[in-house]
Amino acid sequence: MEDEKIVEKVTTLIENKRINELRKYLENINSADFPSIFENIDDEKIIMVYRLLSKEKAAEVFVELEHDDQENLINCLTDKEIKNVMNKIFMDDAVDLIEEMPANVVKRILANTKSENRKIINELLKYPEDTAGSLMTTEFIDLKENMTVEKAFDVIKAKGLQKETVYNCYILSADRKLLGVLDIKDLLIAETDELVKEIMDTNVIKVQTLEDQEEVTKVFDKYDLVAIPVVDKENRLVGIITIDDAIDVMQEETEEDFELMAGITSTTDDSYFKTSVFTHAKNRILWLLLLMLSATITGTIMTSFENTIATLPILVAFIPMLMDTGGNCGSQSSTLIIRGLATDEIATKDLFKVIWKELRVSLVVGVVLAVVNGIRIAVQYHNTLIAIVVGITLICIVISAKLIGGILPIIAKKMKLDPALMASPIITTIVDVISVTVFFGLSTLILNI
Amino acid sequence: MEDEKIVEKVTTLIENKRINELRKYLENINSADFPSIFENIDDEKIIMVYRLLSKEKAAEVFVELEHDDQENLINCLTDKEIKNVMNKIFMDDAVDLIEEMPANVVKRILANTKSENRKIINELLKYPEDTAGSLMTTEFIDLKENMTVEKAFDVIKAKGLQKETVYNCYILSADRKLLGVLDIKDLLIAETDELVKEIMDTNVIKVQTLEDQEEVTKVFDKYDLVAIPVVDKENRLVGIITIDDAIDVMQEETEEDFELMAGITSTTDDSYFKTSVFTHAKNRILWLLLLMLSATITGTIMTSFENTIATLPILVAFIPMLMDTGGNCGSQSSTLIIRGLATDEIATKDLFKVIWKELRVSLVVGVVLAVVNGIRIAVQYHNTLIAIVVGITLICIVISAKLIGGILPIIAKKMKLDPALMASPIITTIVDVISVTVFFGLSTLILNI
To answer: Are residues A67 and A190 in the same domain?
Structure first.
């Protein structure tokens, strides 16, 4: 709603060429609202609008934009304008930008970056993807332990504007080792002549540069932090990660899990519409092919019961119901276990606790489904024997589906694979084989075919 | 790792009765580490450990604990101890506690709460679940517009400790209308004699008390906020929501989506192991029953092609592969669309854009699958005609599955239902019907049975 109003206002001002009014209006809009403005106006107007912004605003808006808009902008901007952006944005945003732009654009960006920043960017680019080091920025407030609170405020006043956050300040030794942390609240309620070391918290929650980014988000969540210091192996402070970037990672990881669990191999961060048809097809086809070919095993097993089917073709009518129920039971369990593992509620050492739980749950579920379905069959086909065969099969399928769904994600994690791999598609394929074998096996046995 | 070390240390100190050392050690542990300590020691030791904590720490630790530990503790604590906790915790945590505890415990909690706080709690309890009002707390820093920066610091110094956050301060008019917001950074870099109104941001990002909590999290994410003011219809500031609570909501909503998409009706916030076998069964059985009975439709359709099956029983062998592929294709699309809708990347007005995209993707995917599978059938069965029938069926199934998977979540959203309902289980059941009908229909037609 809000978005649409802003876009409407901007387009009206452009159309009526009320440039001065537009300039004032733009300056008061939150930078985070610009992507939706740019999405709704023509490319040539984008550069016109962008040039109306003050230097500060221009840099702020730039980092909020989508990658394709950033690329288009850079291609239109002068060197001086690029320099302004690169002087003002934080180092983590600079690194993100460089990682996403094509080589010729990167060349131009770096050519317009101060050499000291270029050095920092190059250092940051060395950290492996998905580590704390690749997420952090280098603009933090550092204090000395023998400073007074008054002096600390002077430091913040002098440097605060260029720092990504002042909510937390870090106390470093002469050799830049991390000694403590100060929440700005503790500074504000302290007496001005107290020493920083008297009020700082020495029990610092921190992460190492090579820590996995998913672990970093868990630390944020557990300790309710707004920023986390990143140290090297010698406990030297090299950067900080702020909560907004941690939230982005949480969302990325969630999307990855959703896609993996649906059998999609994601190769891009782009949105649904920005991903090309070809890329969409490529992302989806690998798993489909694999699962399609695996599913033929179930088919082959069915062929081996050709005689049973020929004698009692009605049996085939139960196949979809049995297969679907097995698949659904399995994916319920695997989803719960995959999420439990992702949120650390379940650990790999809980394997037998999970088995014991799923076993009992599946017994309850299996018996209820078997009874309801038994009644349906008895009423529909007047055949108690088939009702019994289908009922026993259902119980066997539910139990095995829930056990497999419970066990496989844990085993995957033990093998250092992503548990989300063991979701609905794979579980369904495995449970299908069991369903068909148990059903036709029991039918042959009990119905004396 | 870290957790285990702390737990080990604590248990050793308890066993060796080194109480003074334990007291000191506990005071230095982060409150967020206490739940895992309490999980690993006996109930009677929990109260012993808890009583070693200072008053401040005791309140801090209390809000971090699991609900069952909180309940056990309250039953062991004296009225005075409960009073201490209730005097120190923030109002949003008090409300959470009261919402989760059984009636007799709530009675005791409220009896030990100051009457002014009891009034606030009762006000907060009135906001509907899942709204901004139900998430907010009332401890924020409010300033007046004509204060100097120096005076503002005095206010923060005097009241800061009792406020949930000092990162953002809110400027109110005499009748408590929200006039502006000040990030603490802006206060810190301002001159002491400047007026608050000269530096405050009047373009305040805020939410209304009845705003849906999911929308609130989107505002946090879009504008990279650490706290958001909540206003009533008259723009009076009634509370704030902090980022840590917003993150909890994000995670809750994600879990809900995961569970709903796997056909689980979640009725509890408890973890996997804390949920009883009976509750697990109850949460899973509804969808399984519904889907099991729907799947019998597919079975009934198959029975109607009894003659076709009797003439060419080999056809049955392709059923599992066709059904599974259809189900997988559909759930890939529905997952992408459900997530796109959840993250606002896709809007309901994009229905035709989605259809056009899925149509093209499914054509590419369908043709590739049909060709690969055609080759396999030609090689395995030396029967080109069957390869053609299965191939055409595959293409039809992929297209319809992807269209249904793309369309249903959007329609659900238009009907104000949760799009996550339209996930794998339902799509699979619908696509099964199409798969079987198309396959046997085409077989009868092309193979002249």
So the answer is: no
Q: Which of A167, A203, A220 sits opposite B167 (nearest CB)?
A: A167
pLDDT in tens, B306-351: 888 888 888 889 999 999 999 999 999 999 999 999 988 999 999 9
Judge: B432–A300 Cβ closer than 8 Å, yes or no: no
Q: Pick the residue from chain B with its C-alpha nearest to A150.
A: B188
Give the C-alpha separation, A265 to B281, whole Å.
32
Q: What is the pLDDT of residue A427?
A: 92
Which of B196, B220, B253 corresponds to the end of one domain? B253
CA-nearest residue to A329 within chain B is B288
**Contact predicate B327/B424, CB 8 Å:** yes
For residue B122, the domain's CATH number is 1.25.60.10
Asked if B73 and B159 sit in the same domain, the reply is: no
Q: Supply the pLDDT for residue A130.
A: 92
Question: What pLDDT is stored for residue B60 in this prediction?
Answer: 92
Q: Cα torsion at B306, B311, B317, B318 (round to 10°)?
A: -80
Distance from CA of A383 to the nearest CA of B (A): 16
Rounded to whole angstroms, what are the CA distances from A326 to A401, A443, B200, B292, B434?
Answer: 6, 18, 60, 10, 20
Host domain of residue A315:
292-446
Task: Calculate what percentage of chain B has a pLDDT beyond 90.
Answer: 79
CA A119 to chain B, closest CA, distance in angstroms equals 28
Does an H or E element contain A24, and which?
A: helix A19-28
Q: Say which CATH number the domain at A149 has.
A: 3.10.580.10
Is A30 in the B-facing interface, judged by CB distances under 8 Å? yes
**Cβ separation of A262 and B424 shorter than 8 Å?**
yes
Give the ranges where B262-318 is alpha helix by DSSP (H): 277-304, 306-311
Q: How many domains does chain A have?
A: 3
| Single-letter residue type at A182 | L
Domain shared by A197 and A108, yes or no = no
CA distance B43 to chain A (A): 21
pTM, rounded to two decimals: 0.90
pLDDT tens-digit map of B251-260: 999 999 999 9
Q: Indicate whether A150 belongs to any domain.
A: yes
B345–A161 CB contact, under 8 Å: no
The answer to whether the CB atoms of B156 and A188 lie below 8 A apart is yes
User: Mutation test of the interface with chain A: which of B5, B201, B288, choosing the one with the most A Cβ atoms within 10 A?
Assistant: B288
DSSP B148: B
